[in-house]
Amino acid sequence: MYFLTGWPRRLLCPLRSEEEPFHIQPSSQRLYFAVLSETQLSIWFSRPSVLIVSYIESAKAAAQFGSYQKAEWKPDDSMIAVATAKGYILLFDVLGGGEDKSLYEPVYPKGSPRVKVTPGYKEEQCAPALSLEMKKPVDLEAPITSLRSLQEDLLVCTTDGYLHVLHWDGLGSNGRKSICLTTIPFSLDLQSARGGPSLDLEEVHIRCMEYCVTLDGFAVVLSDGRLGFITPLSNTITADQLQGVWAADVNDGTCVAVNNKYRLMAFGCAGGSVLVYMIDTTTGSMQLSHKLELTPKHYPDIYNKTGPVKLICWSPDYSVVMVTWECGGLSLWSVFGAHLICTLGEDFAYRSDGTKKDPVKISSMTWGAEGYHLWKQHNQEQVLLHGEDRLYLTCGDPSQVQSTSDTQPHTHMHPHDGSPLHHPPDPDSSLSQGLSTLLGHKHWHVVQIHSTYLESNWPIRFAAIDTAGQCMAVAGRRGFAHYSLFTRKWKLFGNITQEQNMTVTGGLAWWKDFVVVACYNFIDQQEQLRLYQRSSNLDNTYASVTKLHSDTLLLNVFRDLVILFRADCSICLYSIERRNDSPYPTASVELLQEVSMSRYIPHPALVVSVTLTSVRTETGITLKAPQQAGMAESIMLNLAGQLIMLQRDRSGPQVREKETPANNKKLLPFCPPVVLAQCVENVWTTCRSNRKKRHLLEALWLSCGEAGMKVWLPLFPRDHRKPHSFLSRRIMLPFHINIYPLAVLFEDALVLGATNETVLYDGMQGSSEPLEALFPYCTVERTSQIYLHHILRQLLVRNLGEQALMLAQSCASLPYFPHVMELMVHVVLEEEATSREPIPDPLLPTVAKFITEFPLFLQTIVHCARKTEYALWNYLFAAVGNPKDLFEECLMAQDLDTAASYLIILQNMEAPAVSRQHATLLFNTALEQGKWDLCRHMIRFLKAIGSGEMESPPPTPTTQEPSSTGGFEFFRNRSISLSQSADAIATGKFNLQKTFSMPSGPCVKGREAECAENMYIDMMLWRHARHLLEQVRLRDLGCFSAQLGFELIGWLCRERNRVARVEDFVSALKKLHKDFLWPFPVIPGGSISSPLKNGRCRTVLSTRLLKSQSADSLLNSDMDTAPPQAASANHTWLDGLGQRPKDMDTASSAHSSQHSPQTHDAFLSLLTNKVEEYSVGSATDLTETSSVVDGDWMMVDENSSSLSLSQAELEHISMELANKGPHKSQVQLRYLLHVFMEAGCLEWCVVIGLILRDANVIKQVLGFLDSPEVPQDTVQSVRNGLLAVDTWVSTDCLGYKPFLNLIQPQLQDLMDSAAEQVQPEAFQPSSQSSKLGGSEGLGGTAVPRPEDSRGVTAPLGLALPSLEPAGNFPRPPSEDCPPEQTEEQGDEEGAYDCTLS
Description:
By secondary structure, this protein is of the alpha+beta class. Helix content is 29%, strand content 22%. The protein is built from 37 helices and 54 strands. Strand 25 (309-314) and strand 26 (320-325) form a beta hairpin. Helix 10 (788-797) runs antiparallel to helix 11 (801-811). Its main location: membrane.
C-alpha cells in the first residue's frame, strides 16, 4: 500500500527558459522521463534526477508545427513521438553516446570492489549521454487529442473523428492507416446483433484513449462525454475488425486510465467522481464495479466543488490510483476504492491560522520507478512498509522477542534453530508485551537499507519479513541483502559478481532461518529457486539451488512448503527439509506437485497473489476433533480481484497412512476452482492452531477496498453434537473498519494498519509560498482496530447466537473485551434508536440477551448508557431491563461502583424519591463495606437530590466517562453545599479557607430542604455508628468517623447511656486485641527499674521523632521543658474546657451553629500531608469545638507550636513502647481513648485503658466514678466489668496480672465505695463535662497536653491527621505481633486517611 512521506522534492531545470513545462511522460521502464514545454523537449534521468538532453525548436519550425502538446515513448526507449498543436506528429530518435560516453558516473573509493567490471555497470549506474534527432514530421491535418504506443504501432486520435495507426518506423507504404469512428459498430454488449454503426457518431471524436493489454482493447472517452470500449476482433487493427460497447447512462466523461493487472477501466467524470468499469466476460458489456468519490462525511466543504476529473494515474503495480481535479488537489484510492489520502482537506487545505490555501493545480503527473515517490507491504501478521531507502516495521523494541503476541506460537516451528531469537518466551508475558507494543505507540522501527547495496541495485523491488518480525530481506535490481534486528547488521554478498549475476524475479520469503529466493541466473541463463542460511555468509557456496523450468512470477511459503506461480500459469509445490549432514546447515528442496491453471487464467500477469492455506470447507469438522492443524488443504489465488480456491480432492480412493511408505509423499489432487469473493485486495490466513480460538485461527480474512473487510468464518457444532445438515460449514461476514488493513492479528482480534498524518510548517510567511508551505510534512503512523464486535453482531443478525457465544467466550480474556461489548451495544443502539422508520426485527434485545451471558453485563450497559445521549436511554433500557432492577443486581453482586453509575441514570429517569431510596441502599452498603470514597460521593449525591427536588423535569445528564470512583463528576456543575469533611480529604491541602455556598433557588426553601437532607444523612450515619458500636468494632468506628468527618464525640455524648455502654468487658477486650492486632501481654521475666525506663524512653522517642519526616513541630521544641510550663498549658486548656458545657449541649443538634459559626481555641499537631509516622501523643492533641457542616474554617500552620513532655509522661510513653503493639494501633487506640474520655463514656475508657495497660487512665476514670453526676448504673457496670476481667485474667490471661496488681488500690477503693451507696443526683451535662475536663487535665499524664493555642480559631469539623502513615515508611513490626499480621493489617486499612473533628 502507498503512503505519502516527507515533503515533495523540487527539481530545478539548469537551462534558462521562459517556458513553463506542462507535460511529463516516463519511459516504459521509468529510467527516463520526457518533459515538454511549448517548444522544448527535455529528457531527464530518474536516479539521480539530472537533465540529460534538451531539444529546442527553432522559431520558424515552431510557427509551422505549433506548440508541443503530448509525448509518447516507443516501448524500447529508442524513440519519442511528440504531438503538436497544428496536427503534426514529430518523431525523435534517442541516440546513445557510444561506448564510453556517459554524462554522470558514480565515483567509488579506492579499493572498492564496485569497479567498472561489474556487468550492466554502464547502463544501470551511469547517466548516459543521449542525443535527440528529429525525423520527418507526419501531418495528420487535424488537432491531436490522444497519443498511445502499442507494440510497434503508434495510435493517434484526432478531432476530425479518425483513429490513425502509425508504424514507429512510419515511412513505409503501410506505415499509416486511418479508421473513421463512424465505421465502428457500437452496442451495449457484444451479444447484440452487429448491424453496422448503431449510434450517431457524426461530429464526435475520441477525446482520450488507453489500451488495456489484459482486456485486449481500448477504453475511450468520446467528445460528447460517452464512455466506450473498443475490441479488435483479430490481431490487426482494421476498420472492419473493431467492435465497440457503451457504458449505459453516462455522458460526462473527461479522461480514462486502465488497470492491466485487475482488468479495470477508470473513467473520470465532469462531476468529480471516477467510475471504475470492468468487462463482463460472458456478455462483453461494461459493468460498473465501483465509484471513487469524496464523501460529504469526510470532506463536507469540497466534495461537490472539485470540478471535473483532470487526470487519473495507476501505480506501476496497479494497486492504487491517483486522481487530480481541475480545481487542483491529489487523492489516492486503493484499487477497489478504499480511500487513502486527499490533499483537499485538513492540513493540506488550511494553514495553521485557519486560512484556506489554494489547492496545488496539477497539469501532469506520473509514477516513478517501482512507484516510489509516493510506497508497499508483506506477511500475514507483521506490517512491513518499504520506502525508497528504508524499511518501516511495526515491531516494538527488537530486544524483546515479542514483536507481536503472535510470534509466541511460532516458536514451536523452530525446533532446531539455535539462534537466540526463537527460544520459546514465557507465554504469559508474550500477550501483555505484545499488545502493548502493538497498541501502545504509533511509531515505527525504521531500518535504513544498506547504502552500498542500494547505490548499485536501486530500486528495491521486493521486501520480506520473517514470522517473528526479527529478520528482513530486500531485493533490488540485482542480488539481495538481509538484515537482523537482533544483531542490527546487514549481510551483503561478499562476492560482487555473484550479486550482479542474479536478479530476483518471483520474490523473497523466509522459511525458519533461511531466505527463499526465486531468481534468474544470468550466467546459466535459467530460473532457480535458492535457499540461503541466515547465519552463514551470503555466498552461493552456502546456498541450495534448484533449477526451475519456467519463469517464476510469485513465491510464498507455508509451513515446510514453497508454492510458486509460474509464467506458464502453473502452480508448483515444493517441500523443504533441513539437512544437517554438511558442515554448514543446508536445506533440500523436492518437487511435490504441479497444478496447471492455464484453463482458468487468461493472462499470468492477472494473478495478484498465491497462497497455501489450511482452510477447507468439507464436513466433519467438529470442535472435539480439530482437523489436522496446519495441513496444506487449499490454494488461494487472487486473480485480478477474484479470490479463487482450489481444495484437495478427497473424493477419490483414500490411501491410509500406514500403507504409504514414509518417503513416498503422494499428495492428493486439487478440485476444480471455486470463486469465494470478488474485489479482493489482500488475503490473510495462518497455519497455527489454538484449540481455544479456532474460530479466529481457522478463518480467512479478506480486505475488499471500499466494501471493507470480509471474514470467512468456520461454524462449529456446539460440543460434540451432530452437525445440522442445513448449517453450512463456513459463512462469509462483511464488516467495515476505519483504517486500511495491512495485517491481521488472529488471536488478538486486531487489524493493524497505517495512516498518513500531517504536520504543518509555517517557516516562511513571505509573499511567495515555498513548496514546503503548500504541502504539510507527511508522516506515516501505525494504527490498529478491534473488529470482534462487528463479527459478533453479524453472527447475531444471522441468528447464529451460539456461534457468537463460542467466539466471544474464546476471546473473553483479551484486555479490551469489555470495550468490544460496549462498542457492540453502542453501535446497535445508535443505529436503531435514531432510525426514522420502525425496525421490523430490532437487534438490540438480542444483543442485550447475548451480553447477559458475561459477567461484564452490568458494567457494559451502564458505561454504554453514560456515553450515550439521554434521549436514547428509554430505548436502551426497554431492551436490557429496568435500571432499578439492574441497580439491585449490582448491589447483590457487591459491585458498588457500577451501582453508583446506575444511580446517576436513575436520578435522571426516575422521581427524586426513587433515586433517594436507592441512594440510601447504596450508601448503607458502602458504609458497611468501608468504601469511603463512595460514601463521600453518596453524601454529596443525597444532598444534591435534596437541593434538586424543586426542579421538576430531570436534567439531561452530562455524559462523562465513569471514573474509578463510580463517577459522580456531573456534580461539578451544580451549586450545592458539599460536605466539607469529604472535600478536605479530596483536596489534601490543609491551609485552606472555605466558604459556604447555598444552592440556587428560593433561599428559604433551599435551606429547609438542605436541613431536612442533612438530617436524613445524619440519621443514616448515626445508625451506622450505633451498629458498629453494638458489634464492638471500634477500629471501624474510628475509621468511619475519620473518613467521613463524623462528629463522634457529640454523638457519643448523646449515646453515653444508651448504645455507648459496655455489656461484656472481657469479650470487648478480646475483640479489641483482635481488631488492633494487639498482642496479649505475657508475664515479663523481671521488672525494669524506673531510671532505666526513662533512659530507654529518651532514645526510643528521639529516634521515633527523627524518623518522622514532618515532626518539625516536635523537633523544634526542647524535650526537657520545665514542668511549670506544662502546668500553665494545662491551666489554659482547662479554662477553655470551662467555657464548653453550653456547646456540648448544643452539639446534640447537628445544625445549631449552622448559620452562626463560633470559633474556639484549638491546637492540631502535625497536620501535614507528608507525615510518615506519628509520635505517640500526636493523635490525642485534639479538642472538639463545633459541628461538621460549619462555615469558614482554617487550618493551623504546622510549625506553630512546640511540645513539652514531663517526666511522668516520658515514663508513660516508655511503658507504651514496652507493650509492643503495632505503632499505628497504639496511635489509634490513644485517639479513641481521648474521644471516649471527652464524651464521658467511662466504661470504654476503662476497656481501652486496660488494653493499653495505662494505670493513669484507670486511676483517672475510677476517680471520676466518685462524682455525684456519674449515674449509678455506670459505676455498677464498671465494677462488675472489672471483676469479670479479674476472673478472666486469673484463669485465661495471666499477662494482665501485674497490671491489675498495679491498680489494686484503686480497685479496692471502688469495691469499698460500692458498700456505702449514695443516691446519684440527676445527670448534669454542663457540670459533668467541666468536671471531666478538670480531672482529666489535673491528671496530667493520661495524654500529652497541647500548649496554649496562640489564638488560632478552629470551628468544629477539622480534619485529623490520617491514622495511616502517608508514605510507605517501613514500620518496625512488633515482636509479639508476627510480621505477616502487620502486613495483613496494612492491607485491610488501605485508605486510613482519617479526618477528625
